[in-house]
Design brief:
Layout: H1 14-24, H2 33-37, H3 42-55, E1 61-62, H4 74-85, H5 98-112, E2 121-124, H6 127-138, E3 144-149, H7 153-161, E4 165-170, H8 181-187, E5 192-198, H9 210-221, E6 227-231, E7 256-261, E8 274-277, H10 280-293, H11 299-310, H12 314-335, E9 350-351, E10 362-363, E11 366-367, H13 371-382, E12 384-385, E13 387-388, E14 398-401, H14 406-421
Parallel strand pairs: 1-12, 3-4, 3-5, 5-6, 6-7
Antiparallel strand pairs: 2-8, 7-8, 9-14, 10-11, 13-14
């Protein structure tokens, strides 16, 4: 053993020994498997591909990222500026400033029928952190999480990151992309701990009505240790009917972690402010998780959020109406393309057409055998960036964000129609 110790090496040989150690060191060998699973894959890849092609001078319409193309309403911007000038630029409490927690308690009761005290609300650095707080607080290795596909890609990533086992249930466009309750019930096991529900849904725009939620609630309440994570971030982008929070149903308050935020409805994506509402023991656990990773959300952003809640909603309604006009435009354009199948889009700013009838067709010598290949071809050859459905657990579909100008949408739809119509 002594012969292997650096101290025993001949001094003349020491520099070469050190050089060997330095040249053989591979820092990537230290990375955990966790780093490989923490990747949003297709969304980031397609968004980056569109940027790269634009940098080379190609005219590309990007319908990849789910971000409002509107600026944050001016009254909210001014509230943030005022807060900074008044000195609200320091650390905030981990759970958020008391005034905003109280305002959200009122908002949830008045708008969603959710009766949570300020102590049961935690402000987060974006709704994505709210989801991570919830999953990391509840899920251990071996715990099963029921996920309703199509689903937002980060759900699966976060569950796997926590060591949980995703149990993925699929619904088709013919089912309005909503998994029936009987299939959910059949998937429940003693290891089931969480069901993730996103209504209104990214990527499909699906909205679960009260009767459907009551069926799901009955399944959850019959299990001794099962909860729901209800992501309601798109609640202000509805095109008809009323959104129902599953946590407002009888017996579901203690079974539900409601996640929401300011990014989508108020066009505040870059402000990074989300929140959770859950019974106090769960909220305290999520606060501990957040305190370990990031601590409190930006204080002057929280002051601006107070204005978002209390101020006029004219801009919010204006954005919703514009999204609805774009929704109608996108539905008309996609439904006119042979081989494309799409249902109604009752909410959000996404279209998720089923293109399975086109898979296997050719463009020259290239076979469009997957939606990944189809999306690559659309952006590279036709200048429209979309996201393959593989990112959302639905490989026969593609996602288009219509949070883009009407001019860009018209251009994109014309290009998509020409491209798909050319397939043989």
């Amino acid at each position: 053993m002594a012969a292997l110790c650096p101290r025993s090496l001949d001094r003349a040989r020491l520099p070469s020994y050190r050089a060997a150690i330095m040249t053989s060191f591979d820092p990537t060998s230290l990375l955990t498997a966790r780093t490989q699973s923490a990747d949003e894959g297709a969304i980031i890849r397609m968004a980056q591909k569109s940027r790269d092609l634009r940098a080379k001078g190609q005219d590309v319409v990007s319908l990849t990222v789910g971000e409002p193309d509107f600026d944050t309403p001016l009254n909210i911007q001014e509230a943030a500026t005022k807060a900074m000038r008044e000195g609200f630029t320091h650390y905030s409490p981990v759970a958020g400033i008391p005034e905003l927690r109280a305002a959200l308690s009122k908002k949830l009761k008045d708008e969603n029928g959710l009766d949570y005290s300020p102590a049961e609300i935690c402000l987060t650095n974006g709704a994505k952190q709210a989801i991570a707080n919830a999953v990391l607080s509840l899920i251990d290795h071996g715990d099963e999480v029921i996920m309703l596909a199509p689903f937002w890609v980060s759900y699966e990533i976060t569950v796997r990151f926590a060591g949980g086992t995703p149990v993925i249930l699929h619904a088709s466009v013919d089912e309005d992309y909503k998994v029936p309750a009987k299939r959910i019930a059949a998937a429940v096991t003693p290891r089931t701990k969480l069901l993730i529900l996103n209504s209104p849904s990214n990527p499909t725009g699906a909205v679960w009505n009260r009767a459907e939620l009551e069926e799901i609630a009955a399944i959850v309440k019959a299990h001794p240790r099962m909860m729901v994570l209800s992501d309601e971030i798109y609640e202000y982008i509805m095109f008809g009917g009323k959104m129902v929070s599953i946590g407002s149903l009888p017996g579901m308050k203690e079974r539900t972690i409601t996640v929401n935020g300011f990014s989508k409805g108020f066009a505040m994506t870059g402000w990074r402010l989300g929140y959770t509402a859950a019974i106090e023991p769960i909220t305290r656990a999520m606060m501990r998780m957040q305190g370990t990773i990031t601590t409190g959300a930006n204080q002057f952003v929280q002051r601006a959020a107070l204005e978002a809640l209390a101020g006029p909603r004219d801009d919010v309604e204006h954005m919703r109406q514009r999204y609805q006009q774009r929704r109608d435009m996108v539905l008309k354009g996609l439904r006119a393309i042979p081989g494309v199948k799409i249902g109604d889009i009752p909410a959000t700013f996404y279209a998720f057409p089923d293109v399975s009838a086109l898979l296997g067709k050719k463009a020259g010598n290239h076979v469009m055998d997957t939606t990944d290949r189809l999306c690559d071809w659309l952006v590279e050859e036709h200048g429209v960036a979309t996201v393959p459905g593989t990112a959302f657990g639905a490989p026969n579909s593609i996602r288009l964000s219509f949070a883009a100008s009407e001019a860009d949408l018209e251009k994109a739809l014309t290009r998509i129609a020409a491209a798909l119509g050319s397939l043989q």
